[in-house]
Amino acid sequence: MKDLEEVFDPLADRRVARHLKRLKIQGDLIDLFQEPPPPELLTDYVLDEAATARVALIQTKYAQRARNIRRSWNRMQLYFPELIRPGAPPRDVLELSTAHGGMLEVARHFGHTVMGSDYANMIYAPDNQPMAVFRDLNDPDFVRATDDHGIPIGPEGTNDWPYRPIIESIGIPMTIFDGGKTPYPFADKSQDVVMCFQAIEHYCHPNDWMGVVAEMCRISRRTVFVMLNPAHARFQKNRTYMKAFHAFRLGMRNYGENGFECSATFVHWNEALGFKLSAV
Q1: Which pLDDT score, from 0 to 100, does residue 277 have?
Q2: CB atoms < 10 A from the CB of 181, how many?
Q3: DSSP calls for 77-144
Q4: Closest Cα partner for 169 from 105, 107, 91, 233?
Q5: Rounded to 10 degrees, what is the CA torsion of 249, 81, 198, 172?
Q6: How far is 137 from 270, CA to CA, in rounded Å?
């Protein structure tokens, strides 16, 4: 038998990695029930020249409305079938870190009242600025002058963000605030559903994510949903971060606080990263 070092082909390995990534991405877009998304949501965003220049700051795939809707339609079918079934009663739906607003577009199409939120991206360290991913929740000393794209961060509730032109083009109402600071600007039990897709990592260190979940439970009457990103390669060698990351996942699986309990867990990209909490 040849030595493993002799037969290992780095190029072939990269090809396998790329293929696996494509399969994961396709899983986000697959037609689950041979029922296409509402066609009126598949038209292009209407953006002027200045808006198009601002949207160029985000990844190209997220500037494509049809793709955003297909992905959101897939997620609504998987995680929120109660919101899209025929005759579903209208609900109040809040999404934290709305980005392109696809989830709320679908929810609104089915008669639900929606509210989005967003703020500055602060997960990188341009000009040696501090990174939000390592701050404590409500850290009074955390200050940033600009976001990861160089956009100035204004007073609370006033700052700009890259997805703003898209959100304005589709008319999603927004509340702008820093997710790393509680309490959030919503009354107790003012929303039926509070969802957060692949964004809680932007708010604070995973040691404090349960504080964010508690705030979501305060606001929600019925359902809280959190979907994590897989831990970024930059953090996987940070033992403290990864220990807290996995402790949060287990804590969410076992959740039973603030009038909610974990009713479902979901695999995303080959890891248990989605958690649905229901009021009890």
Answers
A1: 98
A2: 18
A3: HHH-HHHHSTTPPP-EEEEES-TT-HHHHHHHHTT-EEEEEE----SS-GGGPPPGGGSPTT-TT---
A4: 105
A5: -150
A6: 29
Give pLDDT < 50 ranges for the chain. Answer: 1-8
Residue with tokens 């809280």, as numbered in its chain: 224
Q: Omega into 183 within 30° of 0, i.e. cis?
A: yes
Instruction: Please give the backbone phi and psi of residue 109, each rounded to the nearest 5 degrees, phi first.
Output: -55, -30
Query: pLDDT tens across 157-190, in order?
Result: 788 999 999 999 999 999 999 999 999 999 999 9
Half-sphere exposure of 27 (CA within 13 A, CB side): 11
Is the separation of the CB atoms in 231 and 245 below 8 Å?
yes
Tokens 């040849």 -> residue: 2
> How many C-beta neighbours within 10 Å does residue 239 have?
8
Three-state DSSP class for residue 250: helix
pTM over 0.85? The answer is: yes
Beta bridge partners of 220: 191
Answer for the pair 220, 194: CB distance below 8 angstroms, yes or no.
Answer: yes
Pairing assessment for the beta strands 220-227 and 191-197 based on DSSP bridges: parallel
Q: Taking the CA of residue 238 as centre, how many other CA atoms within 13 Å lie in the half-sphere pointing to its CB?
A: 14
